[in-house]
């Protein structure tokens, strides 16, 4: 009998991992700029982190709240939102704070160790010291939603914003982009749409060639002249409002507009470059460059299933560089990925404990 | 005796132009995004708009207030600011509303005929119908500050933002850029600095080459890592705060940093392209392409007198395209340009009147 099988019995006996109760739970939180999702899962009765997960996953409850990005809403509101969404998920599960064994928070806007420390500090007011806490950028939850809780590979998120995040098997991590539109996230939905708006203005004032984007975007926004784009753009600084024009840019490219086509080609290059930077720094492709690793693809820009498919083009670019890269489109939401991560940390902790 | 000489007597007799009083004045307003300046000038006792202006110009008073860009502060505050600054300039001049014969307002954010109409509408509550009102973008005041009140040529403004504006002798006008950073004003101070910040982030995360901009900008902002740039950038959305980094970019380019050099070269191309678009649309260079016209150069980005001189490079680019273009660095401020325009409108009106 292998060591892990012995552990398995122990896990089953306790209805979970090493010394817990039947009712013990883990929480996974995906804290985005527009909304925050928390899921509550029971401790999965599994032997080790290498075994297959049950299908469907036993989700006890799901709760949704507003933004928890401290850059957007401030620290106090971010804290309140996170606490509220966890409390609601526990309550819906018929559970409570004392049943929590591990929490994984992937929160947008966590870009620096001081951000992590601050959040862990106030989480400790809620959770006693035996509860495992893991706080990271929301990209972590997105990666885990594709790898089902494994911290290995690269995630590329391209929605309103864009970021690449990667983890190596030996625990190193790296990110690329995710710095917002001012700092050059040009492959993001906002970046693509801003380039398209710019092309319209430049065509109008004589700095650039004419483009079908003009009619298409003016129609989409119910405006009568490119002059009105200035007022429209600055009337509301929301990046999502501008990023919502991406489908119009894709339509124009599909209709053969060369300016729209070029904007999308450039975005594809930017997104692939962002993944490349992470893969290189972590040597995810191994010494020979052919090593296998997942690239988790998340976000509206990559999910368009049109004839001009940005996600497919990005994968093609990445494949040319790294033949062992395989794309993954997640089947669960990032909050579930975060909960699986929380559970995986417990499993590893338990394995370490029983092997020591 | 020429017709214009006859008019001249008439002008002198009335202490101004056609039928005014000795105490009549004109107002010139330069309404910017950061401040608004109003100057009050007496009616200049001149024969026609072709005669030399007195030197120094007889400025009765100057008043300063905050922003009057309706996009920044809202319409009501913009109106209050404009009214207040005019009232203060009149009061300092020992004058009053009823002495005003003409007003020229160059207001930032006036991008559309509806903007002009709105401002003229409420100006009519203050000024009776015989007072000449002229409302335009603030670029007009900047042009007039270089041409001393003549509406001919092209002005290139490159400070925090950038815009090109031109007027042909037959009264046509055209603009280029001036649409803000989202809409591609890449030659602006904000555009240059944002490219530099982007280069630092890209070097840091592996998407771009290393650059001296990293040390230079982190030092300027008292930050310890490029990761902190994200928080710094989004802590305050003011464009001027980012544009203030332009001298650091210029320093790096002067020290031989190729990334900084490339950013400035690109900005020069953008600024020259913006002037070119206006010149082409208005045929300012004449049928043979060699016609003479002024290019008024305004704003911090063009005024740097360093070994890497953006303004000089822009002029070189423009000269290659249009040998007859001659650069003008204004010797008076834009509000004075606006006042001279107001006076010029009266002269022309008077000339039309006496010639009819």
From TrEMBL, chains A, B:
GO function terms (MF aspect): N-acetylglucosamine kinase activity
Enzyme class, first EC level, given as a word: transferase
Enzyme Commission code: 2.7.1.59
Family of the protein in this entry: Belongs to the eukaryotic-type N-acetylglucosamine kinase family.
Species this chain originates from: Quercus suber
Superkingdom assignment: Eukaryota
Designated name of the protein: N-acetyl-D-glucosamine kinase
Record domain ATPase BadF/BadG/BcrA/BcrD type: where: 27-342
Keywords per UniProt: Kinase, Transferase
InterPro entries in alphabetical order: ATPase_BadF, ATPase_NBD, Euk-type_GlcNAc_Kinase
């Amino acid at each position: 009998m292998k060591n892990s099988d012995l552990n398995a019995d122990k896990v089953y006996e306790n209805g979970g991992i090493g010394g817990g109760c039947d009712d013990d739970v883990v929480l996974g939180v995906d804290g985005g700029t527009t909304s925050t999702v928390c899921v509550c899962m029971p401790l999965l009765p599994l032997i080790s982190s290498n075994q297959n997960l049950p299908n469907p996953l036993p989700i006890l409850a799901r709760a949704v709240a507003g933004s928890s990005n401290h850059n957007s809403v401030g620290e106090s509101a971010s804290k309140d939102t996170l606490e509220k969404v966890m409390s609601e998920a526990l309550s819906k599960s018929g559970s409570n704070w004392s049943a929590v064994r591990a929490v994984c928070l992937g929160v947008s806007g966590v870009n620096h160790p001081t951000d992590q420390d601050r959040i862990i500090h106030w989480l400790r007011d809620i959770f006693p010291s035996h509860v495992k806490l893991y706080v990271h950028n929301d990209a972590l939850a997105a990666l885990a939603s594709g790898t089902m809780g494994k911290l290995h590979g690269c995630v590329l998120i391209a929605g309103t914003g864009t970021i690449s995040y990667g983890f190596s098997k030996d625990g190193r991590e790296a990110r690329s982009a995710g710095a917002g539109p001012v700092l050059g996230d040009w492959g993001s939905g906002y970046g693509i749409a801003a380039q398209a708006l710019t092309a319209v203005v430049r065509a109008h004032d004589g700095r650039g060639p004419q483009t079908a984007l003009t009619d298409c975007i003016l129609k989409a926004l119910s405006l009568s002249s490119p002059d009105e784009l200035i007022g429209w753009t600055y009337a509301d600084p929301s990046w999502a409002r501008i990023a919502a024009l991406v489908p119009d840019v894709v339509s124009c490219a599909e209709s053969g507009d060369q300016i729209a086509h070029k904007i999308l080609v450039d975005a594809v290059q930017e997104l692939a470059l962002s993944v490349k930077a992470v893969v290189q720094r972590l040597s995810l492709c191994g010494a020979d460059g052919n090593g296998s690793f997942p690239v988790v693809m998340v976000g509206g820009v990559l999910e368009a299933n049109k004839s001009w498919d940005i996600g497919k083009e990005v994968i093609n670019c990445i494949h040319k560089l790294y033949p062992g890269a395989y794309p993954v489109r997640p089947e669960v939401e990032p909050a579930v990925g975060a909960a699986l991560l929380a559970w995986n940390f417990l499993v590893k902790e338990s394995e370490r404990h029983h092997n020591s």
